[in-house]
Amino acid sequence: MKHPTDAPHSIYGVEKWGKGLIEVTEGGEIGLRNPRAPEAPAISLPGILRDLEERGIRSPMILRVASYLENEIRHINESFGAAIARTGYKGAYRGVFPIKVNQQAQVIDRIVEYGMPYHHGLEAGSKPELVIALAHRLSRESLIVCNGIKDAEFIRLATLSRKLGFNTVIVLESPKEAETVIQVYKELGIEPILGVRVKLTNQISGKWEESSGDRSAFGMNTDQLVSVIDQLRAAGLIQCLKLQHSHLGSQVPDVNDVRRAVGEACRYFTELTKEGVPLTHLDLGGGMGVDYTGEKKATENSINYSVEEYCANVVETVAYAMDEAEVAHPTLVTESGRAVVATSSMLVFNVLESTLYDAPDAPQVEPDDHHMVSDLAAVEGYLSPARLQECWNDATFYRNELRALFRRGYVDLRQMARAERIYLRLMARIKALVASSDEVSDVDDQLEKLADIYHCNFSLFQSLPDVWAIDQLHPIVPLQMLDHAPDRRAVLSDITCDSDGKIDRFILADGTSPSLPVHTLPEDEEYYMGVFFVGAYQETLGDLHNLFGDTNVVTIDLKPDGGFELLHEQEGDTISEVMAYVEFDPQDCVAAFRKMVDEAIASGSLKANDRKTLMSAYRDSINGYTYYE
Ligand SMILES: *Cc1c(COP(=O)(O)O)cnc(C)c1O
Questions:
Q1: Half-sphere exposure in the Cβ direction for 629 (13 Å, CA)
Q2: Which ligand 1 atom sits nearest the alpha carbon of residue 252?
Q3: Residue 173 Cα, ligand 1 centroid: separation in angstroms?
Q4: What is the distance between the alpha carbons of residues 251 and 446, in angstroms, rounded to a whole number?
């Protein structure tokens, strides 16, 4: 329903989900606000794109805002700091960033830099991630937490890294891993820092409910835990066991689930302490969510808490449990990934063309046309707000009958084209009547089937894999013309040849919708769309469907005076690069193509001077961007 006093863009709900960082400017464009300079006006995102375009950097691209990464690192650390001070908690907070959430060097390097004042460390879930972590100069007080299944090589590297002053914690996932650790200790004679991963039985609601609790693939149950303690004690390594870890799951929607899980983790901690295990660190894993929809509710794509509340809940729950059991307050560790990086990246692409499901005008019925064509055209004569459903039914009936007649050969191509166009014109009239009415119409639902298709220059599989795979919702908005009321509704289709490559669920101010309000495409300029909060998980989970490769990635910093600074540009994959991923040698392909050209010249089917044109067309393609240029 429309509210006549609202700004035309209020339908998108940017105020709700924009976190005060993304907003609509006076000029009707999406703007980025600088968290370090809250008084400065928002800087226009299309303006940034125009500037980048002048430098030859084209969409589709991922735009990374370093200032937002810094802001989140600071926010989490300062919120834990504030909760610790307020509660009188005796331990410190030491966050670690889980590398798997965004492994890009540009992201990890900056997290290490911005995290330095807070001793923010890294979490590695595999050997390659540990290798990346150990290439960074971390603060002496920060941690590297090693999770995941580990072989002797992994454990050896983690243990040896202590010689360089790294606080590398090997978190034991199973009794078998404890055996490997004991063997490596005997081999190297270096005491490791150890952790144990405890499987909590509390289930966490949300997208990952099924794999939480008992059915989690990770961590040990009480029986395994006790046997690991006995193993370590027997091997003389119990003094190395400093950290208890449990990961609650990702995107936890309900803060009360966090509280319950933390309470359960504390029970293990105090019990292990009673057993004489010298634990000093309680690691609560990831799970802090992102409010993608801005609803502030415990739903799959939202959360019912703020960063401050999350931190306060953790600190208070641990303080209470430790005090009750008379155990010293441990250092608190969390492994927030999504909450740290999601906001800092946005995907930007241009719309290439549209398929419209209505028409601005209709042709005349010809004298020889089938009578159903005139019946169809006559519907417009009785179209009125009160008879919308009836007109819809009639128009659809005649159109379908005519299609059947066409298939059987009673109606020819030009007559069918006239009928389709008359139908589309009727649909335009019906859409206009619905849009100008304040009442909820009985044809609203049917109209969704007539949403336009906007064909966009991106690959869902490469750039938004979670939208495809797990129905993740991200805010999506046109970046310009927001001072004009959107006059159309569309679903977005990507550039792959896969019918799954579409987006048909959108976040709007008053809930989700199967279509997105958009503007008629301007004729002389690009129409850009932005997909927000894509910094977590999307970049590496993406795949090469149809061989669309990585997009350009640009990192910028927002300057206090309102401008921006280009920090880094990573050019997207070229066609030859994606060919190499699938084991084609671009040189061999050029040679094979050249051979065919030469044979065609030899046989006389191609002129000699066409050779250059054909070869440079092939070469230009192979060296170019995989997306629409
Ligand atoms: C994936 C993962 C995380 C990150 O979770 P978020 O929900 O992104 O914060 C943290 N710890 C472990 C062990 C993980 O596997």
A1: 14
A2: 7
A3: 15
A4: 34
Q: What share of the chain is helix, strand, coil (3-state, %, to 5)?
A: 45, 15, 40
User: What is the distance in A from the centroid of ligand 1 to the CA of 100?
Assistant: 8
Ligand 1 geometric centre to CA of 303 (Å): 16
| Residue 336 CA, closest ligand 1 atom number | 9
Convert the pLDDT of each residue in 345-384 to its tens digit: 999 999 999 999 999 999 999 999 999 999 999 999 999 9
- Rounded to whole angstroms, the Cα distance separating 480 from 180 reads 58
pLDDT at 4: 46
Q: How many whole angstroms from 144 Cα to the centroid of ligand 1?
A: 14
285 lines ligand 1 (CB under 6 A): yes
Using the mean position of ligand 1's atoms as its centre, give its distance from the Cα of residue 259 in Å: 17
- C-alpha to C-alpha distance for 328 and 282, rounded to whole angstroms: 11
Q: Kindly state the percentage of the chain with pLDDT values over 70.
A: 99
- pLDDT, one tens digit per residue, over 54-67 is 999 999 999 999 99
Q: Is residue 130's pLDDT more than 90?
A: yes
- In tens, the pLDDT along 210-229 reads 777 777 778 899 999 999 99
Which residue type occupies 342? A
DSSP 395-423: HHHHHHHHHHHHHHTSS-HHHHHHHHHHH
* Tokens at 611, concatenated: 């050779």
337 lines ligand 1 (CB under 6 A): yes
Instruction: Give the helix/strand (H/E) hosting 321.
Output: helix 307-325
Q: Rounded mean pLDDT of the chain?
A: 94
* d(C-alpha 337, C-alpha 339), whole Å: 6
pLDDT digit string, tens, across residues 452-471? 999 999 999 999 999 999 99
3-state secondary structure (DSSP) of residue 516: strand
- Say which range, 66-75, 208-217, 228-237, 308-317, has the weakest mean pLDDT: 208-217
Q: Are 402 and 373 in contact (CB under 8 A)?
A: yes
Q: Which residue has the tokens 């429309």?
A: 2
This prediction's pTM: 0.94
| Contact assessment for residue 490 and residue 515, using Cβ atoms and an 8 Å cutoff | yes
Give bridge partners of residue 63 from the DSSP assignment.
Answer: 346, 554
Q: How far is CA 198 from the centre of its chain?
A: 29
563-590 residue pLDDT tens = 899 999 999 999 999 999 999 999 999 9
Ligand 1 neighbourhood includes 216 CB (under 6 angstroms): no
Please determine, for residue 1, whether its predicted confidence score (pLDDT) is greater than 60. Answer: no
Q: Which residues contact 333 (CB under 8 A, 6 or more apart)?
A: 93, 94, 95, 96, 143, 145, 243, 245, 281, 282, 283, 284
Q: How far apart are CA 61 and CA 526, in angstroms?
A: 14
Q: What is the DSSP pairing of strand 476-478 with strand 452-456? A: unpaired
Strand partners, 32: 22, 43
The values of phi and psi at residue 185, to 5°, are -60, -45
User: Can you count the helices (H) and strands (E) in the chain?
Assistant: 21, 23
CB atoms inside a 10 Å sphere around CB 443: 17
**Do 360 and 121 touch, CB atoms closer than 8 A?**
no
> In ligand 1, which atom is closest to the CA atom of 218?
13
Tokens of 209: 């409910």
